[in-house]
Design a protein that fits this description.
Blueprint: E1 5-10, H1 12-29, E2 35-41, H2 45-54, E3 59-69, E4 75-83, E5 93-101, H3 105-115, E6 121-129, E7 142-146, E8 152-153, E9 169-173
Parallel strand pairs: 2-3, 2-5, 5-6, 6-7
Antiparallel strand pairs: 1-9, 3-4, 8-9
Helix pairs in contact: 1-2
The structure holds inosinic acid and magnesium ion.
C-alpha cells in the first residue's frame, strides 16, 4: 500500500481571495438587515469565521450539527441532527454555510428542516462543490470552487477527524480503507 500523501489543491491565499469575492456578492444581493449565518459543524467552522468577517453588513451566526458520514470516506446514507440551532429563525434571512456539497444528501435534508421553521429566505453558501457526485438536488447560491471528484481535507475538512487544521485544501492520496 502506497504512503498517504497530501497535495495542495487550493492554497490559503486562493481561499481567502475567493471568500472576499463571495462576501462582496452576498453584501450586494441581500436587502438591508441582518443575515443569519448557519454553519454546519464541524467542517464549515473556518469558512464561517472568514466569511462572517469579510461581510460588510450585520450578521449573526449559529451552528447546527448534522451528520451523514461515518468515520471513513464513504457516506453512511443516514442523516441526523446532532445539534440544533439555539434561536428561532422565523422571518429571518438564513444563509447556510457549508464546507462542501458532495451527494447533496445533507443539504437537501437540512434545507427542508429549516424551511419548516418559516424563515424569510434560505440560501446556501458552500466553499467547495463536487457537482459530479450529486444524488439529491441542492440549489447552492454561492460556490467558492467547483472541484473534481477527489477526497479533500484541510480548512475544516477532515478524514476521520484528522487534517481539519491545515490552512490549505489538500487532496488526500492513497487513503487507507476505513476499518
Ligand atoms: P453530502 O451529504 O454527501 O453532500 O456530504 C456532505 C458532507 O460530507 C460534507 O459536509 C463533508 O463533511 C463530507 N464530505 C464530502 N466530501 C468530502 C471530502 O472530499 N472531504 C471531506 N469531507 C467530505
Ligand atoms: Mg460537513
Amino acid at each position: 500500500m502506497a504512503e498517504t500523501k497530501l497535495r495542495v489543491l487550493l492554497s490559503e491565499a486562493q481561499i481567502q481571495a475567493r471568500i472576499r469575492e463571495l462576501a462582496a456578492q452576498i453584501d450586494a444581493d441581500y436587502p438591508s438587515g441582518i443575515i443569519y449565518l448557519v454553519a454546519i459543524l464541524k467542517g464549515a467552522c473556518f469558512f464561517m469565521a472568514d466569511l462572517a468577517r469579510a461581510l460588510q453588513r450585520p450578521a449573526r451566526f449559529d451552528f447546527i450539527g448534522i451528520s451523514s458520514y461515518g468515520k471513513g470516506k464513504t457516506s453512511s446514507g443516514e442523516v441526523k441532527l446532532t445539534k440544533d440551532l439555539d434561536v428561532s429563525i422565523e422571518g429571518a434571512d438564513v444563509l447556510v454555510v457549508e464546507d462542501i456539497v458532495d451527494s447533496g444528501v445533507t443539504l437537501n435534508y437540512l434545507v427542508h428542516v429549516l424551511q419548516q421553521r418559516r424563515p424569510h429566505s434560505v440560501r446556501i453558501a458552500a466553499l467547495l462543490d463536487k457537482p459530479t457526485r450529486r444524488l439529491r438536488p441542492v440549489e447552492v447560491s454561492y460556490v467558492g470552487f467547483q472541484i473534481p471528484d477527489e477526497f479533500v481535507v484541510g480548512y475544516g475538512l477532515d478524514f476521520a477527524e484528522d487534517y481539519r487544521n491545515l490552512r490549505d485544501v489538500c487532496i488526500l492520496e492513497n487513503v487507507p480503507a476505513p476499518k
